[in-house]
Amino acid sequence: MSFFNKVLASVGIGSAKVDTKLERDTVSPGEALRGVVEITGGNTEQKIDDIYLSLNTTYIKESDDKKYTVSGLIDRFRLAETFTLAANERKEIPFTFNLPSDTPLSFGKTKIWVATGLDIKNAVDPTDQDFIRVIPNPLMDSVLNAVSSMGFRLREAECEQAPHRLRRRLPFIQEFEFVPVSGPFRGRLDELEVVFFPQSSGETEILIQVDRRARGLGGFLAEALEMDESYVRFTVTNGDIPYMQQKLQSVIAKYA
């Protein structure tokens, strides 16, 4: 490679391009995501130090009483060792990885995407982004359908910075905020918040915040002191799916 071409490559002129093609863009937590990374060489030979895929989302972070949106890394996967890409060479690298069980779902404002990057020393690193749709697995779907069947409407779903006591592997949690519009809890609850803490594809821990409606002066004071809120933790498995609504209704009724 001529000195002139080396200079051009180092500043990203005539450098490699990357394009990731997914087999499908809809997947559930725990399922496999497959695809191929297509790399096309530029006008000059380049050494590729690393190829990686990262799974990302955004979440709300609070600092100094201000809220702002930041990117959050869910997981990162390395695809290839160092290799040299010739000028105009085309290379395909197939991949398969399982979505982590704690990947957020594509509800509300929550977006999830796969970012592909080539690590090229002393150069502008080529990148590519592909958004995916993450849908509930059967167990999560059963819980969300049960809440809906009890007369709750999903008002908001958002990833937020996790308080220290709720922090697990990731620095954020996804909250599903429901309001009762019909059914047994209309008029008894202000809202219901649900958070999933998946243990496996067939088992998940659930945290529910039950926010009771204030009634009279005592209720007003309780609400002002946040004594009208109860936090409930319990675990559900695939074996609970046929009876999910009865199980959730029984749990919520104890605190309504």
UniProtKB/TrEMBL annotation:
Any single Pfam family the record assigns to this protein: Spo0M
Designated name of the protein: Sporulation-control protein
Lineage: Bacteria, Bacillati, Bacillota, Bacilli, Bacillales
